Structure formats: structure tokens, C-alpha cells
């Protein structure tokens, strides 16, 4: 080799080494995308968009209450809100998968190559991928005799032919959709926070579901994704596995940008902004909180005490995976009465099963704030521009819905979705069993503390997926290799 090539090769090797994953730290960041694209009001395809959103909330509520009957359905949803997904890498070599970020479920699962009912195309403009265990050099199967199989089975020994049999899973949702498959262990690739607005690729071994068959609306290609990434509390969740491996704290936060799309989704202790918290209700499978009162424009609603029960099929659940807010009928009627108290002569219209009306001017100036009060003196203010969504010129529709529209067994629950948490930083501290929030600009940044080093780093908002970085690294690697070959040839 000519001596003149040595400096060039050293530079190239240094560049290649910069692409290698850095040392693991105790924070992680997920760059999120909006599942349903934001659009303004009516227009071509508007009704189809609304129907898809409303149907999603029906499916979502069915998943959250997986033991109940089918959702009762409906046809419309706000045009101003959406759901979110991220992109992760799985396997060796890493392949990208789009998964819904879901705070209402626990497991991570992706569709498997053996699945003949899984969609091959998505109406979301993303490329779907089927996970192939045989194509990964780091894959291993999970047997019925392993601890994870017992944990994922709710702590009960699974029904298997033998301890060496593959550990299967089957999830049936309340809307009739389902996923069935088997558990595998493989390498998960994700972005670790490594500096201010900087990340480095990191990886760890994780156990997840390989979906061999899906049914119902999960097989629809209209809004198809590769799977679901659950951020629930159980030991089988991805977050718990990362925490048990010493990779992260069991704390995460999201700030979903309903104005620009995307937002912030990070694992780690948020040190800025500081948020006030309320205790989680113990012994519940979801993020249940203790609701104490509701007021509309400062007028406290007189509601039955049973509304504030925290028992099964009652109580209040916080879930960013739901777009609207669903309330018991008595609460729904009381809120509507107060919201429209000064508009006794207003003419209402039924638009895709929504209560809609004509109004010119600022809804924030013409309608009251709805405030939910929780244990620990924590309040949630829902602004008029959040619970009243615009659907065409001067046409507004109500985003608070009756719970009976979703499931008959969920009619007595308060389910607070995206419209209640628009542009708020929401902190889930599972270690201390609290949840909190505060108004925030979700297009800005937050500060996360790395518990291992004590460093505090800035995490910015994004509207691209984490998988883009995998593709970018792969493309840059190929470019550098081609450049190296060019240098050697000439």
C-alpha cells in the first residue's frame, strides 16, 4: 500500500468508528411520529379520516378493557389530534420496525414472517417489515420452563406439553381483534442519550412476541403498523426488562405535539420541567388515578360519589393512546350543560355522531375551561380549543364523549386521552408510583438526568422516527466503504 493512503485510511477508520454504538447510559429517547396525519377541517377524504380516527378509538378502548364486549362504535373523530408511533431496530443485523407507542398495554410484539394474515402494506406511507427469527444472528426461542413465560402468563404456570415447548401468547381484545404467536429473545436497538441533543445507538437483549396470526382490525392495511410497543407497568414490558437489565430507570415521559406532530418520548428522570404528581391507584393494570372533582369554568359539578370510585370497571385512566376523552353519561351531560349554559338558543348538528355547532370567533374566549381535580392537589385544565375541535369553517364539534359509545362495560369509567393532554409533558414514575403533568411546548426540549453519570442532557422534540437514524448510519457506512474502495483503486 502506498504511504500516501495511510492518512486517508486512518480518517476513514475514525469516521467508521464514530458510527459504532457508544457506552450504554441510563437514558433513552424515542423519536415519535403522528399515526394519523393532522389535517384542517373538511376536505377531500376528510370524512374517511374522521371515520378512521373514531374507529381507532373504538378499537383502542376495546384493548384497554380487554375482558369486555365489543365497542359500540361510531363514525367520527377530531381532526386536530392523532396517535403516535416510533421505529425501533430488532435483530442482528438490525431491521427497522414501526410500532405504536402504547401506555395502555405491556408487551412488545411485532408481526412474524410466518404470519399469513398480517398486512403487507400500510396506508400510513411506511414500509412494513415482518420479523424473521431465522434471519437474525442473535435470536433465541423462549420455552415454557423459563421465568419470562410465567411472568407473561400473569404469574401462573403456562399450559404447555412440556417445559421445553415454545412459550406462546394469545391476546384477545375487546373489539374482537387479536394477536397470537410465540415469545422470542433478540437484540433490541435504540437511541441512548449521550449528550445535549445527541444520541448514540445502544442495544440490549429483550424478550417480545412474534405474531404468527392477527385478527380483526389489526389486520387492516389502512393504518397498519408492524406491532405495538407497550409501556405498561408489568415485569414483561420492554421498560421493565430494560430497567431489570440496569439500562434505564423505570421512569419515562412524553410530550405529544398536537400542533406540529411528533414530540418528545424519553426514558429517564426528567429534571426540567418539574411537574407536580398524583399517586397511581395501587393494584390496577393501567395508569389509574384518583379523581376527586370536576369543575367547568370554576363551577364545581355535583356528581354521584360512585363516579370517583377506583374499583375495576370504574375510576379514571390516563392513556395517551386514546384520542378523545370518554366520560360516564351523568358526567358527560353535566359538562355539556355547563359548557353551553350561555348558549341556550344555539342550534346543534349531528356530524358523524358528534355534537357540532356553528361558531365564529375564538372558542377560548367564548367557552369555559374544564378542570379535573386529582388526589395530591393536582389539576388538569382542558382548554376549549382542546375539547372543541374545528371541522370546517366555523364548525366545531365536542371532543368529550359518552363512555357508552365505546363499551357497555366501560360506561362508568373516565378515560382521558390526547385531547386532555395536548401539549403537556406527562411523567410516568413507576418506581415511585406517581404520574404528573404540566403545560409545555412539545416542540421544544426537556432535560433528563443520567443516573449513572449524574450528567444532565437536553432531549429535543422530533418528528422523525428512530429508524431513520438506522438507515442514515447504514447509508453513511456504505458511502464510506465506497469512498475507501475509490481511494484504494486510485
UniProtKB/TrEMBL annotation:
Residues 84-438 form the Peptidase A1 domain. Coiled coil: none annotated. Disulfide bonds join 356-397. Keywords: Aspartyl protease, Disulfide bond, Glycoprotein, Hydrolase, Protease, Signal. GO terms for molecular function: aspartic-type endopeptidase activity. The keyword Transcription does not apply. Residues 1-26 form the signal peptide. One of its GO terms (biological process) is proteolysis. It holds the Pfam family TAXi_C. The keyword rRNA-binding does not apply. The active site is at 102, 319. Transmembrane segments: none annotated. Belongs to the peptidase A1 family. This is Peptidase A1 domain-containing protein. It comes from Lolium multiflorum.
Amino acid at each position: 500500500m502506498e504511504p500516501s493512503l495511510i492518512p486517508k485510511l486512518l480518517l476513514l477508520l475514525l469516521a467508521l468508528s464514530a458510527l459504532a454504538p457508544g457506552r450504554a447510559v441510563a437514558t433513552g429517547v424515542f423519536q415519535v411520529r403522528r399515526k394519523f396525519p393532522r389535517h384542517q377541517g373538511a376536505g377531500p377524504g376528510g370524512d374517511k379520516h374522521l371515520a378512521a380516527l373514531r374507529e381507532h378509538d373504538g378499537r383502542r378502548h376495546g384493548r384497554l378493557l380487554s375482558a369486555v364486549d365489543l365497542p359500540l362504535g361510531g363514525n367520527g373523530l377530531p381532526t386536530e389530534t392523532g396517535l403516535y408511533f416510533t421505529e425501533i431496530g430488532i435483530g442482528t443485523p438490525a431491521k427497522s420496525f414501526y410500532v405504536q407507542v402504547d401506555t395502555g398495554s405491556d408487551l412488545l410484539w411485532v408481526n412474524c414472517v410466518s404470519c399469513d394474515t398480517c398486512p403487507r402494506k400500510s396506508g400510513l406511507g411506511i414500509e412494513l417489515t415482518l420479523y424473521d427469527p431465522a434471519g437474525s444472528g442473535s435470536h433465541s426461542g423462549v420455552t415454557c420452563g423459563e421465568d419470562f413465560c410465567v411472568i407473561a402468563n400473569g404469574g401462573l404456570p403456562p399450559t404447555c406439553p412440556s417445559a421445553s415447548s415454545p412459550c406462546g401468547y394469545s391476546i384477545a381484545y375487546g373489539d374482537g381483534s387479536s394477536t397470537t404467536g410465540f415469545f422470542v429473545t433478540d437484540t433490541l436497538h435504540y437511541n441512548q442519550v449521550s449528550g445535549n441533543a445527541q444520541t448514540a445507538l445502544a442495544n440490549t437483549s429483550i424478550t417480545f412476541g412474534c405474531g404468527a396470526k392477527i385478527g380483526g382490525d389489526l389486520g387492516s392495511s389502512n393504518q397498519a403498523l408492524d406491532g405495538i410497543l407497550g409501556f405498561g407497568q408489568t415485569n414483561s414490558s420492554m421498560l421493565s426488562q430494560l430497567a431489570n437489565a440496569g439500562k434505564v430507570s423505570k421512569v419515562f415521559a412524553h410530550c405529544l405535539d398536537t400542533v406540529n406532530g411528533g414530540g418528545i418520548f424519553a426514558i429517564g428522570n426528567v429534571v426540567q420541567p418539574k411537574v407536580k404528581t398524583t399517586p397511581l391507584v395501587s393494584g390496577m393494570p393501567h395508569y389509574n388515578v384518583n379523581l376527586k372533582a370536576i369543575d367547568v369554568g370554576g363551577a364545581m359539578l355535583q356528581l354521584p360519589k360512585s363516579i370517583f370510585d377506583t374499583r375495576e370497571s370504574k375510576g379514571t385512566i390516563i392513556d395517551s393512546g386514546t384520542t378523545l376523552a370518554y366520560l360516564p353519561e351523568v358526567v358527560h351531560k353535566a359538562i355539556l350543560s355547563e359548557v353551553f349554559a350561555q348558549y341556550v338558543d344555539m342550534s346543534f348538528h349531528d356530524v358523524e355522531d358528534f355534537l357540532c355547532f356553528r361558531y365564529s370567533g375564538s372558542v377560548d374566549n367564548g367557552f369555559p375551561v374544564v378542570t379535573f381535580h386529582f388526589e395530591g392537589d393536582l389539576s388538569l385544565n382542558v382548554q376549549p380549543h382542546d375539547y372543541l375541535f374545528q371541522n370546517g369553517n366555523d364548525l366545531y364539534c365536542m371532543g368529550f364523549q359518552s363512555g357508552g359509545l365505546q363499551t357497555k362495560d366501560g360506561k362508568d369509567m373516565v378515560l382521558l386521552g390526547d385531547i386532555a393532554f395536548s401539549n403537556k409533558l406527562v411523567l410516568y414514575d413507576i418506581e415511585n408510583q406517581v404520574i404528573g403533568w404540566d403545560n409545555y411546548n412539545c416542540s421544544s426540549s426537556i432535560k433528563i438526568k443520567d443516573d449513572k453519570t449524574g450528567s444532565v442532557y437536553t432531549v429535543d422534540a422530533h418528528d422523525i422516527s428512530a429508524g431513520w437514524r438506522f438507515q442514515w448510519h447504514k447509508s453513511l457506512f456504505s458511502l464510506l466503504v465506497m469512498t475507501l474502495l475509490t481511494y484504494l483503486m486510485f
